[in-house]
C-alpha cells in the first residue's frame, strides 16, 4: 500500500521536536533542495559553502526542520540549489559554479546505494520537497514542465514499491527577503501558484490510477521555513 501525501505547506509539527514514539517510522529518507540540506553541499565544497552566518552547513542561521524530526535514522539526499531533474534544469550551487544532483538524480542514487529489498518499507517515510530552483535558473520555464519533471521523479521512487511518501508543494517564496530585494515578487508568486495547482492535479491523477494513494487537504504553514535560502 502506498500513501502519497501532498501537504500545501510544511506542517507545523515538523518544525517542532517530535517524540519518536508518536510517529510510526524508524527511517526517514529526504530528497530536496536547500530547505532540507543539512550539509551535503557543505561536504561537496570541502566545508567552504555555505559559510557563516549559515549554521553548520545548513542554508539557515540555525537548525532546520530535518534536525527536529525526532527520528534517529535519517537518510538525507537533499542538496542546496537542487532542481527537480538536471536533465530539465541543471542544479548549480556555490555562486552557480558547482553542479549538484537534482531530485531525480538523488532518487537514483538512493535506489542504487540502498538495499531496498531488505528495508522495512512499512516503517520508512520518504519526503520530497523541491521546485523553486527550476524557476530561479530558468525564468521562461512553464510550471507544467516542472511538475511533470517532479512527477517523473516520484514515479521512479514508486517503482521501488515504497509505502509512504510525502510531497510538499512550494511555500510562498516570493515573500523571502532575497526575492524581495530582486523585485521579483510577481514572477515567483505566479510560478508558485501555478506549480502548486498543477502539482495538486498531478497527485490527484496518481490517486486515480492507484486506489491506495491518499490525499489529505491540509493548509498549514511554518514561518520558520522562511529563514531558508535557495
TrEMBL record:
Signal sequence range: 1-15
UniProt key word Signal: yes
UniProt key word DNA repair: no
Alphabetized UniProt keyword annotations: Hydrolase, Signal
Listed Pfam families: Lipase_GDSL (PF00657)
Molecular function via GO: hydrolase activity, acting on ester bonds
Protein name: Uncharacterized protein
Amino acid at each position: 500500500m502506498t500513501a502519497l501525501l501532498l501537504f500545501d505547506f510544511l506542517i507545523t509539527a515538523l518544525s517542532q521536536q517530535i517524540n519518536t514514539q508518536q510517529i510510526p517510522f524508524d527511517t526517514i529518507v529526504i530528497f530536496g533542495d536547500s530547505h532540507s540540506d543539512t550539509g551535503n553541499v557543505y561536504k561537496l565544497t570541502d566545508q567552504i559553502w555555505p559559510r557563516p552566518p549559515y549554521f553548520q552547513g545548513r542554508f539557515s542561521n540555525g537548525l532546520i526542520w530535518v534536525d527536529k524530526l525526532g527520528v534517529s535514522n535519517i537518510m538525507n539526499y537533499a542538496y542546496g540549489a537542487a532542481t527537480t531533474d538536471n536533465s530539465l534544469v541543471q542544479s548549480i550551487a556555490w555562486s552557480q559554479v558547482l553542479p549538484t544532483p537534482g531530485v531525480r538524480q538523488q532518487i537514483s542514487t538512493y535506489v542504487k546505494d540502498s538495499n531496498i529489498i531488505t528495508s522495512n518499507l512499512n516503517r520508512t517515510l520518504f519526503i520530497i520537497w523541491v521546485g523553486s530552483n527550476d524557476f530561479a535558473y530558468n525564468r521562461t520555464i512553464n510550471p507544467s514542465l516542472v511538475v511533470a519533471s517532479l512527477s517523473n521523479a516520484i514515479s521512479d521512487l514508486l517503482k521501488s514499491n515504497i509505502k509512504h511518501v510525502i510531497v510538499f508543494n512550494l511555500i510562498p517564496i516570493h515573500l523571502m527577503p532575497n526575492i524581495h530585494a530582486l523585485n521579483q515578487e510577481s514572477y515567483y508568486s505566479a510560478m508558485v501558484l501555478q506549480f502548486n495547482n498543477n502539482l495538486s492535479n498531478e497527485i490527484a491523477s496518481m490517486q486515480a490510477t492507484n486506489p491506495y494513494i491518499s490525499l489529505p487537504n491540509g493548509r498549514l504553514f511554518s514561518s520558520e521555513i522562511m529563514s531558508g535560502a535557495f
